Transcriptional regulator, TetR/AcrR family
Amino acid sequence: MTDRDDGPSFSFVSEPEDTRERIMQATFETVQAHGFAGLSIGRIADRADLSKSSVYHFYDDKDDLLLAFLDAMLAQFGGPLADADFDDPETELWTLVDFGLYGTTGEQFPPVDGVGDVNGRPYVELRSQATHDDEYRDRFTDIDASMHERLATVIDRGIDDGVFRPVDPDRTAQFLLTVLLGGLFRRATSDGLDADAVRSELEAVVDDRLLPA
Amino acid sequence: MTDRDDGPSFSFVSEPEDTRERIMQATFETVQAHGFAGLSIGRIADRADLSKSSVYHFYDDKDDLLLAFLDAMLAQFGGPLADADFDDPETELWTLVDFGLYGTTGEQFPPVDGVGDVNGRPYVELRSQATHDDEYRDRFTDIDASMHERLATVIDRGIDDGVFRPVDPDRTAQFLLTVLLGGLFRRATSDGLDADAVRSELEAVVDDRLLPA
């Protein structure tokens, strides 16, 4: 089996500003190249060009480092999008969906400051730990809940503004979140996703069900 | 972090019939309990109550064993469903979708022989290897293509039979596959999926777009 190290690159930070950031960046690159099973403090230290003891200065053990990494990743995924201001609910909704389907905020809508292309592979690799580790599972349950809440709030605001029909915001948000994460999962683990086909079908669904006749 | 070993159980085979099957079953249980990062020939041998050399008698190394395991899993996922006969395209379509959303063939439709509850966790754990390993990525790309083909064929047959509208089968299949895998991914990695909400939204979408007015 060969390691895959040629995916689109992605940085947590434009330039690692301090040692902690260097370690987080090195962890990201190590997950991307070797997967979770190939992670070790030694490999991360090598990639960060640090000694193992420098890494242990900041993190007690591998678990401690990985939970810090998980938090950094989730902040990267959710942070700039959480702070972004959107002109209207429809733009906001598609920006969130395109984040999953394409890993970008889409060509159709202006990019959100601080959110570039997101390579979903390390996200999926991390998230797969939740299949057998309760601590990860609880975190991703919280993350999904906050993403669901975000989508439901957008839909709710759209209904208030009269741009969306009076649908059930929770049900619609559950559905959109499943499509969004399905796109991200497929994109990260196979070459078969036709994101344009999924998006155009979803546009038709939104036209039929969410937008006023 | 704690291992999660309390998920719904699932057997490849009702009773391991020979040593290979015992090894595959032990591999399944080890992935479920410890994840991919916790897999070792020693751990698998212990769980199968075999010596390590017995395992090496059948498989050259861990990679060889894991690729055999991948094939066994994919046969388990796809096999019985591939052979099943369905009375009508709509039943077949929902059976495939419910497989992802619920891990079962659903209460609403008769169970398919040989397909019971499927715990998606080891599937997601295996599939996450495709984020950094081309051999896994190629296999899951093939798997998705065959699942897509299956869905498109069902839709096509439904159109021929006059039970579905003349939609684009490829586009619709891409969309359904993304919902199905999104459900499976969420179910395996968080406690937040409201499968009933997703299904009822999808029923409304199918009503609107696929079924004749």
About this structure: Chain B is about 65% helix and 0% strand. Chain B touches chain A through 66 residues (CB under 8 Å).
